[in-house]
Write a structure and sequence with these properties.
Coact_PPARg, Rossmann fold, 3 domains, 3-stranded mixed β-sheet, about 45% helix, nucleus, 7-stranded mixed β-sheet, receptor
Length: about 700
């Protein structure tokens, strides 16, 4: 977030600090000056994500193939200029910034509520002025960039700190982002992603030196200046009295400026007259209403010092290496081999959330596009909590009897005020004991591979479905796993909902980003928007389970562009709920999809179609079809996709009952028997 108002101040009041630069020319100059070092730009990916997401539709769950194409074009533009990119993503929320994180999440809740109100009123997608990033966009952007061959780093500390450090230590030509903190760090030049013209590689470079000249400060003043204006460490509400005193005594007040601009000048004027010493900082801490935490100002200034840098305001600080060493000593996971591998995979963007759980026993999840007024669909945080509890058990089994008997969850959902973390108990996924984590992560051989796969499925209550799922292509096997889990967990999901999900995965196959971009929706349904967010968050839960279980799937197989598109799902959702024909739902490709499986055998099939049983569909509700509608139960392989059986049964019927949210053990077993018991291929639909 940086310093509120500073970016705008520089652009309005300090035009000399905003220089238009040609990144190609800068790269060429770098090559002349440093022939042994290629030009590198370090990218603050978290501040770039909303600029990268250019698809017109954003509310339906994400246009993932379009987004992937945008990222590919972005990378190609820099590669053509000989510029290498290194992308950094936030890997942690540090405790000192938790309050600010909570404040933003609660504000995002209000923005999302307004989005849903707009959709319900107008039945269409809101304009870009209401833009909220699609659920889990930063998570999947990280894996998208990695799949495109880019160096992608997930941080161990605040991302802006690691970005600034990397830029300085590796002699990068600049930082690309949109965060005014990069005006405060004494690091390489700061380029604006918001001003970037990609086809010409021209953008604005913000000059710290020119900013200091306008303010009458030196570079060493900037960290204290940022803290006294309010940032992620020092809250603004503690500084109002101080600002008033500065304004009263400032000779720089200008009635043509707004109040924030005058505050910036007044604070700069005050700082310029203060001796640069630790005692001056202590004096400021004494006069500010910092409450019980008198170290806020110290910690704020210290947070801007990069490795090897000193400040006149504070004594020599603890180095970052020392800080991480302390983190290791206090980690939940005491097995050094497991901890080290989790750390390496975290930094290299190879796993998802695992290091945070093993190091701090803590995890967070930001906002999702969920409708707070839809009480029939629980928040995704609650839907996937049982799966996460199984994942926690897998990760923490080596710590039985140790310090961590629960995981702290900071998950955003309506009704959660985020006043404190929820303490979630791990739950064993497999009766009789959890597999050993070292075995899952380090052992080799077919038996271990089978154990990884079965443990993954057990997280979603499907450990007895392995023989059927393994016959499918990996992306669809994982999607089937997710759908069956959802049908068992969410009591309000209907046959029409499941029809829409199945039609989505069948029709998405082979569609290009351009085809999906051209799809037009006559209207947008708010419940479909909510379900789109739920399914995408489910995919991120698959990532977590896959990471914990030793990667039975390739991470690339669990990405949303493999199985999901927001507009396409919205179309299938609306078609299904208005009772359209099978031909329309499957876009006229029914005949090609009805290839009866003669040679694959039961082991290659997973009866996804039987998940309709979970919607309460039963033989007593079936009406006779006309000959045109009457179809055999479908055991088919849609071209190079998967074996999916008993698809789209009895389109004109409505479910008469649904699963209760609290299933008995007997009902759970009954559902699994339905899901994993294949019917003979000649059986007709009226037998379902």
């Amino acid at each position: 977030m940086g310093v509120k108002g500073l970016q705008g101040f520089v652009e309005r009041v300090c035009p000399d600090a905003c220089r238009t630069v040609d990144l190609r020319e800068m790269a060429q100059k770098h090559c002349i000056d440093h022939p042994d070092s290629p030009p590198v730009i370090v990218v603050d990916a978290m501040s770039c994500v909303r600029y990268w997401y250019t698809p017109e539709s954003w509310v339906c769950g994400g246009q993932w193939r379009e987004f992937l194409a945008v990222l590919e074009d972005f990378i190609k533009a820099f590669m053509a200029a000989g510029i290498r990119l290194v992308f950094f993503f936030d890997g942690v929320v540090e405790s000192k910034k938790r309050d600010e994180w909570i404040k933003r999440r609660l504000q995002n809740n209000k923005e999302i509520a307004r989005v849903f109100q707009f959709i319900k009123t107008h039945r269409k997608e809101p304009g870009r002025e209401m833009f909220v990033i699609p659920s889990a966009l930063p998570t999947f952007t990280r894996f998208a960039l990695k799949s495109l061959g880019q160096k992608t780093v997930c941080t161990l500390q605040e991302a802006d700190f690691e970005v600034a450090s990397y830029g300085l230590q590796h002699n990068c030509i600049g930082i690309l982002g949109q965060d005014s903190d990069y005006l405060i760090y004494n690091t390489c030049p700061y380029f604006s992603i918001g001003k970037l013209c990609l086809d010409r590689l021209v953008t604005v470079m913000y000059s710290r030196e020119d900013l200091c000249r306008v303010l009458g400060l030196s570079l060493t003043h900037l960290p204290l200046f940022a803290c006294l204006l309010g940032n992620d460490v020092v809250p603004e509400n503690l500084l109002e009295g101080f600002w008033h005193k500065c304004l009263v005594s400032s000779p720089c007040k200008n009635n043509s400026y707004n109040r924030r601009t005058n505050i910036l000048f007044a604070v700069a004027n005050y700082i310029s007259k203060v001796p640069r010493s630790y005692s001056s900082l202590k004096h400021l801490e004494d006069i500010l209403p910092l409450g019980s935490d008198k170290t806020l100002l110290y910690r704020g200034v210290e947070s801007y010092l990069l490795p090897g840098q000193q400040s006149p305001w504070i004594p020599p600080k603890v180095t970052s290496c020392q800080m991480f060493s302390l983190q290791q000593e206090t980690a939940i996971c005491q097995d050094k081999e497991i901890f080290q591998l989790a750390k390496e995979q975290h930094v290299q963007s190879e796993n998802y959330t695992i290091f945070n759980i093993l190091s701090k026993g803590e995890i967070e999840c930001s906002n999702s596009l969920e409708d707070e007024s839809d009480t029939e669909i629980p928040g995704q945080a609650l839907i996937y909590r049982p799966a996460r509890q199984h994942i926690y058990s897998i990760l923490l089994e080596s710590g039985k009897g140790g310090a961590c008997s629960f995981v702290k969850e900071w998950f955003v959902y309506f009704g959660n005020p985020l006043q404190h973390p929820e303490l979630i108990q791990p739950v064993q996924p497999i009766p009789g004991g959890t597999p050993n984590l070292k075995t899952l992560w380090f052992a080799k051989g077919p038996d271990v591979e089978k154990q990884r796969y079965s443990t993954f499925l057990a997280c979603f209550h499907l450990h007895d479905g392995m023989e059927y799922l393994q016959g499918l292509e990996a992306p669809v096997a994982a999607f089937c796993c997710l759908l069956v889990y959802l049908m068992m967990q969410v009591s309000s999901l209907s046959m029409e909902d499941l029809n829409a999900f199945v039609a989505l995965v069948l029709c998405l196959k082979g569609k290009s980003a351009a085809e999906l971009a051209s799809l037009q929706l006559a209207q947008v349904d708010s419940r479909g928007v909510h379900l789109g967010a739920v399914i995408v968050r489910g995919l991120s839960t698959l990532l977590m389970a896959n990471s914990a279980c030793g990667f039975p799937f390739r991470m690339d197989d669990l990405m949303p562009w493999q199985v999901f598109d927001g507009k396409l799902f919205q179309e299938k959702y609306q078609q299904s709920h208005r009772g359209c024909s099978l031909e329309e739902l499957l876009e006229g490709n029914v005949e090609s999809m009805e290839q009866v499986i003669q040679t694959e055998g039961e082991d290659s099939m997973f009866l996804l179609g039987e998940a309709y049983k979970c919607t309460g569909f039963n033989t007593e509700n079936v009406k006779l079809f006309s000959e045109a509608e009457k179809r055999n139960v479908l055991y088919y392989v849609p071209s190079n996709l998967v074996a999916i059986n008993t698809l789209l049964i009895n389109w004109k019927s409505s479910p008469s009952s649904i699963l209760t949210s609290q299933m008995t053990h007997e009902r759970d077993l009954e559902i699994k028997e339905i899901l994993f018991h294949p019917y003979p291929s000649h059986r007709e639909t009226d037998g379902i």
